[in-house]
UniProtKB/TrEMBL annotation:
Residues 30-323 form the Enoyl reductase (ER) domain. GO terms for molecular function: 2-alkenal reductase [NAD(P)H] activity. InterPro entries: ADH-like_C, ER, GroES-like_sf, MDR_fam, NAD(P)-bd_dom_sf. It comes from the Eukaryota. This is Enoyl reductase (ER) domain-containing protein. SUPFAM superfamilies: GroES-like, NAD(P)-binding Rossmann-fold domains. Keywords: Oxidoreductase.
Length: 328
């Protein structure tokens, strides 16, 4: 039988990116691709997939030089399993090491109504960062920055369900409303409207912060350090305010780590994938009972991926930025 040939749209990096990335640093190209796995060598266990949806991750900018690997939901060709994991910004991909990709649970509502995201990388990041790094106790006071983002909105809901007092910061009034009215945060504030972040945190945490889930870094981290309680924990998940700076801002209040005996730990979700079954045990019942809300921002078509990625750095996205490459 003749091998099927398809056109494979993909995004390439035109220029090395320093500072804030621009759409013009990327280009969408189309090449022909035979739907056949390469023979032998490193490809003995490889699979061919059709990419369906991917999520834009702000740290992708640091990975663009190696061809935009990003979080994708895809269908194995020709077998048809739905999987998630990292691949490239293209319509079809050959994955040489499929063991690092995960099958999507069959008994969930159909893709794509958030359940795949919840049970994928953002959910796993929120779970590992909050429960493994922060070791929460009921009643503790939790602060989350970039709280309406993919990870933050879940950390907040996990923390509320666990019995914590939860406050989030975000960059627009609309996002602040979402945090309070849809995700059930106790309080939320627009960090862009605060002249003095230290004073803002004191307003919401008069007795200090036990747990800080760090997504942004910079001035927010400095203000948080001043407001942490003794034996507080800080999970350093991301530092989006620093990713595009030529010169990273310094942190001035690190002495608080000593005087308040704070534990501050960075983590990468990939180190926690062995906990994936434990995470699903926790989250699947909550999803089925409709106890978790999730908001995402959908861009249609791979050609809109560069603009969707750039939008993350100005906060244009509301919730997880998803790009639909194909619906089936
Ligand atoms: N450690 C890991 O394994 C891991 C895994 C996944 C993600 N991450 C990191 O976790 C963080 C959150 O990821 P996500 O996927 O939830 O984010 P996201 O949904 O992509 O949201 C990004 C949001 O960050 C905010 N932001 C952008 N620039 C900012 C700035 N200069 N200062 C403060 N806020 C800014 C914007 O919201 P506003 O309108 O609120 O400003 C933007 O919408 C990121 O730093 C990401 O790199 C880490």
């Amino acid at each position: 039988m003749a091998e099927e040939e398809v056109s494979n749209k993909h995004v390439i990096l035109k220029n090395y990116v320093s500072g804030f990335p621009k759409e013009s640093d990327m280009e969408v190209k189309t090449t022909a691709l035979k739907l056949k796995l390469p023979d032998g060598g490193d490809y003995s266990g490889a699979i061919l997939v059709k990419n369906l949806y991917f999520t834009c991750n702000c740290s992708a900018k640091d990975r663009v030089t190696i061809g935009f690997p990003d979080l994708f939901f895809f269908r194995r060709h020709p077998i048809g399993d739905l999987l998630w994991g990292l691949t490239r910004w293209e319509e079809y991909s050959v994955i040489a090491d499929p063991e690092t990709r995960f099958k999507i649970h069959n008994n969930l509502p159909p893709l794509f109504n958030c359940s795949a995201l919840l049970t994928g990388m953002p959910g796993m990041t929120a779970y590992a960062g909050f429960f493994e790094i922060c070791s929460p106790k009921k009643g503790e006071r939790v602060f989350i920055s970039a709280a309406s983002g993919a990870v933050g909105q879940l950390v907040g809901q996990f923390a509320k369900a666990f019995g914590c007092y939860v406050v989030g910061s975000a960059g627009t009034k609309e996002k602040v409303d979402l945090l309070k009215n849809k995700f059930g945060f106790d309080e939320a504030f627009n960090y862009k409207e605060e002249q003095d972040l230290n004073a803002a945190l004191k307003r919401y945490f008069p007795d200090g912060i036990d747990i800080y889930f760090e997504n942004v870094g910079g001035k927010m981290l400095d203000a948080v350090l001043l407001n942490m309680r003794v034996h507080g924990r800080i999970a350093v998940c991301g530092l989006i305010s620093q990713y595009n700076l030529e010169q990273h801002e310094g942190i001035h209040n690190l002495f608080c780590l000593i005087t308040k005996r704070i534990k501050m730990e960075g983590f990468l979700v990939f180190d926690y994938y062995h906990l994936y079954p434990k995470f699903l045990d926790m989250v699947l019942p909550q999803i089925k009972e409709g106890k978790i809300a999730y908001v995402e921002d959908i861009a249609e078509g791979l050609e809109n991926a560069p603009s969707a990625l750039i939008g993350l750095f100005s906060g244009r996205n509301i919730g997880k930025q998803v790009v639909v490459v194909a619906r089936e």
